[in-house]
Amino acid sequence: MSLSLKSPWLAAITTTTLVAGIAWSLGLTPGPTTPSAPAPEPVLAPSPVAPSASADSARIRQLEQQVEQLAQRLGSEEAARANVPPPPMPPTPEEQVQRREAGMEMFEMKVDAYQQERLDAVWADPARKSLETSMGTLLASLPAERRGNLLGVDCRTHSCMATLEFPNFAAAKDQFPRFVEHIYDVPCGRTAVLDDTEDPAAPLKVRVLFDECARD
After folding, report:
1. What gap in Å lies between CA 32 and CA 23, rounded to an integer?
2. Taking a C-beta distance cutoff of 8 angstroms, is the pair 183, 131 a contact?
3. Which residues are CB-contacts of 73 (< 8 A; sequence separation ≥ 6)?
4. Integer Cα distance of 141 and 204 in angstroms
5. Which residue from 179, 174, 159, 169 is spatially nearest to 200, judged by alpha carbons?
6. Dihedrals phi, psi of 48, to nearest 5 degrees
């Protein structure tokens, strides 16, 4: 806010005119006036800034900074979204066949390694009994129409093979992930494979390989 200041020279003229006007209205003849010396050029002092104006300016600057930061963050998020790659395309039937064949080949290599291991009864017997107990508990928790049977568990030195049989393909496909995801007392890697079948209604075997087992 700026303040308007009158110059001394303007104030002198105003005062003289006012006195002459009063004398004329009273019937008096005003005496000669002595012209005053020229007033010095006025010096305008800087306008004082009210405390409230300073506080408002600080708040405005703070709001401007916050708006700028928000705009930068939104711009970064937009750029990140623009750089997100599109979701992968689902595999074609040919790719699915290739993946299954590659998975089966890897599984059979692990089975061959398991079969080549020597028998260490000190470790194998307790490991077998523990796996039989855990897998039997899992089977008992399944619905009767989808419940399978544990045909056997064989352990060697660092690996075990369990064979399950389910009443049909649908039951095997639905239930076998339980036996892979379960946390057993015998710490091993786990891989399960459904054997091929030509009749979906026929009983189906599932092999579960426990490999690279940790030993105390």
Report:
1. 12
2. no
3. none
4. 19
5. 169
6. -65, 145
Quote the pTM value.
Answer: 0.57
Output DSSP code: residue 185: S
**pLDDT grade, residue 2 (50/70/90)?**
very low
pLDDT (0 to 100) of residue 37: 52
Report how far apart, in Å, the C-alpha atoms of 187 and of each of 58, 127, 134, 140, 158 are.
Answer: 64, 10, 12, 22, 10
pLDDT tens digits, one per residue of 156-169: 999 999 999 999 99
Write out the H or E segment, with its range, that includes residue 62.
Answer: helix 51-82
Distance CA 52, CA 202 (A): 88
| Residue 161, CA atoms < 13 Å, CB-side half-sphere | 17
Q: Is 82 left (phi over 0), alpha (psi -120 to 50) or beta?
A: alpha
DSSP string, 12-53: HHHHHHHHHHHHHHTT--PPPPPPPPPPPPP-PPPPPPPHHH
